[in-house]
């Protein structure tokens, strides 16, 4: 039965394979927790087109206004401070409210990335570009989808306009819906191995290999605490 509530317990230290020595106990806490971090991988993005966007340039007498739109792309690490990391830009298409870019991009995604922001602008010959609206996508939502797919997204806070994209996320390793977390809390009654009557203890965490039960795989290690027989770590190891 998988428990999402952390449970802690004391375990007697057993002899290692190399040395027949045992003394003391170690306390650990273990639980399954939901995976809430963006998994690492590659994001393939195509900015295909936009439709019915705002006109910011006046048309000639008797004609409708237009814009000179382009799209900027941001990969942000902070939810409340968007557009801090510009990673791409389409070319500008002159005098249209229905631009077709078909521009493709490729980005490496890491755990600290939180959202993808696409912002449309009207390019001006003089002065800064005029915002035409933007869309914000949570990367955690994107990374749960499989295969390439298209989306038509409404621009905000503009009163009109949509942008059409094609997107695919390819994880570098198989993704997980949950992970097993072990918290190494503390130990007591350890054997003193140093002349001063203490030790410099740390804990290595292994998982048994299903295919080769006799061969364990190292998945993590606690920090080292100097000169003590009663270390307190509170270190987390995820698997």
The structure class reads mainly beta
State the total count of DSSP E strands: 14
Number of helices: 1
Shape label: elongated
Distance between the termini: 17 Å
Task: List SSEs in N-to-C order.
Answer: EEEEEEEEHEEEEEE
Instruction: Determine the strand fraction and express it as a percent band.
Output: over 45%
Mean pLDDT: 84
Q: Which parts are unreliable, with pLDDT below 50 for 5 consecutive residues or more?
A: none
Helix content: under 10%
What features would you highlight for this structure?
239 residues, mainly beta, 4-stranded antiparallel β-sheet
Explain what the structure shows.
By secondary structure, the chain is an all-beta fold. It contains one helix and 14 strands. It has one helix at residues 139-142, and strands spanning 7-12, 25-34, 41-51, 69-76, 86-89, 100-109, 115-122, 130-138, 149-154, 162-171, 178-188, 204-208, 216-221, 232-238. The strands form four sheets. A four-stranded antiparallel β-sheet has the order 1-2-11-14, with no helix packed on it. The chain has a four-stranded antiparallel β-sheet with strand order 6-3-10-9, with no helix packed on it. Strands 5-4-7-8 form a four-stranded antiparallel β-sheet. Helices cover 2% and strands 46% of the residues.
Summarize this structure briefly:
The protein is mainly beta and 239 residues long. It is built from one helix and 14 strands; from the N terminus they run E-E-E-E-E-E-E-E-H-E-E-E-E-E-E.
Describe how the helices and strands are arranged.
Elements: E1 7-12, E2 25-34, E3 41-51, E4 69-76, E5 86-89, E6 100-109, E7 115-122, E8 130-138, H1 139-142, E9 149-154, E10 162-171, E11 178-188, E12 204-208, E13 216-221, E14 232-238
Antiparallel strand pairs: 1-2, 2-11, 3-6, 3-10, 4-5, 4-7, 7-8, 9-10, 11-14, 12-13
